[in-house]
Design goal:
With 93 residues, the protein is α+β, with helices and mostly antiparallel strands. This is DUF503 domain-containing protein.
């Protein structure tokens, strides 16, 4: 069994309140959970307007499958115009 986790720090430049920030984050997390076989959550900086850390996790017998699902999840962030990914860390268990 392969467990993959990716953590990424992000900036949301146009967020002027926690409400703005959470709207962007909720959109990304909901799409990732619905479209891909991953768990997704905001794991850090919940009370800072323009900064966040998101985590995506997937489990499978194939590392290729897990890595593909995590990369697809990260692509949601990259495609979203309001958020920029700054630091990304993969972990394998």
């Amino acid at each position: 069994m392969i467990i993959g986790v990716v953590r990424c720090e992000c900036f949301i430049y146009n967020a002027h309140s926690l409400k703005d920030k959470r709207a962007v984050i909720k959109s990304i997390l909901t799409k990732a959970k619905q479209r891909f076989n991953v768990s997704a959550s905001e794991i850090n900086y919940q009370d800072i307007w323009q900064r966040t850390e998101l985590a995506f996790a997937a489990v499978s017998n194939s590392k290729v499958f897990v890595e593909r699902e995590l990369q697809r999840s990260l692509s949601l962030i990259d495609q979203h115009g309001e958020i920029e990914r700054t630091d990304t860390v993969f972990e394998w268990l």
